[in-house]
TrEMBL record:
Disulfide bonds join C55-C137, C88-C93, C143-C332, C231-C238. The lineage of its organism: Eukaryota, Viridiplantae, Streptophyta, Embryophyta, Tracheophyta. SUPFAM superfamilies: Heme-dependent peroxidases. It comes from Oryza sativa subsp. japonica. Residues 45-336 form the Plant heme peroxidase family profile domain. This is Peroxidase. GO terms for cellular component: extracellular region; plant-type cell wall.
Amino acid sequence: MAAPASSTSSLLLVLVILLAAALISHSSANAWPASSSGSGGGGGGLSAGFYDETCPSAQDVVRRVIQDARVADPRIPASLIRLHFHDCFVNGCDASILLDEDLPSGIHTEKRVPANDNSARGFDVVDDIKCELDKACPGVVSCADILAIAAQVSVDLVGVNLFIEHLAGGPRWRVQLGRRDATATNIPSADNLPGFTDTLEDLVAKFDAVGLDHGDLVALQGAHTFGRAQCLFTRENCTAGQPDDALENLDPVTPDVFDNNYYGSLLRGTAKLPSDQVMLSDDPYAAATTAPFVRRFAGSQKSFFRSFAASMIKMGNISPLTGMDGQIRQNCRRINTYY
Ligand code: HEM
Ligand SMILES: *[C@@H]1O[C@H](CO)[C@@H](O)[C@H](O)[C@H]1NC(C)=O
């Protein structure tokens, strides 16, 4: 018997309540690890408030540029977090991955090593972020910090999805800042980035070399909850005559949402990359190292989010340049030529 007007208003009321519930759980249900630098990693000198005085809008600027870029290219948040990973594993989080080939200054680019060539992407968006930051606070924010902020903002943007059941949002962390930019690259180290055909022993050793343990390895690979892979890298390996660079969703269940469904695929034995599935196999080494974490994260999204946030802080702390070391690059692709 409800008149149209009152049914409209009760629908509105339900919407308002749902929205309020979403906002409350978004702000309370997320891990906010203390602003310490986390264990290991040796990130002394970084702090969450590093730009509070000199560039208070830094995070907002980064968020705005990524929001815009995502409209044309929904994959951008995934591509950006991967850049931070490939930066941090090579000489620490120092933006070495962003440098272009430049023989006069002796720079060989890390962009051409196997793990990055035709694969690492998002460099134009980093340039756009740098450009917008230089309008807001010229010469202040390092390219290495841009990658760290972009990683955090990307996860935050993708985790929030009011239209499916993920009302709680994705993992959040206080990104630690104060990194400075390198004046060199390291090709041998970039050649040694974790690879899709690496054994579990290799992956564990490569993570251990930068102070990351079994739990960090499993949590951080959970970033494969979004983004794409060329079929050449997948376990199916381009069946049915696809071209090598045909794209597949890394998480076939919820391809653009940051959640723990990735670990469910591992339990079912349907993970995309060989380097994903090795974390859960019949191999006794997997049983003794990574498998318990896979099961834990598959069973609890909350546990995954907490661990992911803590491990991202740890990864972001890998040997940063701080203080007077390095420089604040004017152009993320080139070292400054004046001193
Ligand atoms: C453990 C070792 C890892 C290996 C061997 C690995 C390997 C790969 C490979 C082969 C791809 C597909 C690239 C392409 O098709 O061009 C990929 C994509 C991706 N990786 Fe990883 N990865 C690892 C760890 C990580 C970590 C630690 C993160 C972030 C914290 C990460 C984030 C991503 C994301 C988001 C994508 C999709 C990128 C896009 O769509 O542009 N990966 N990874
Ligand atoms: C797929 O096949 C190509 C060509 O044989 C090979 O180089 C590549 O490593 C294979 N990928 C996987 C995931 O096995």
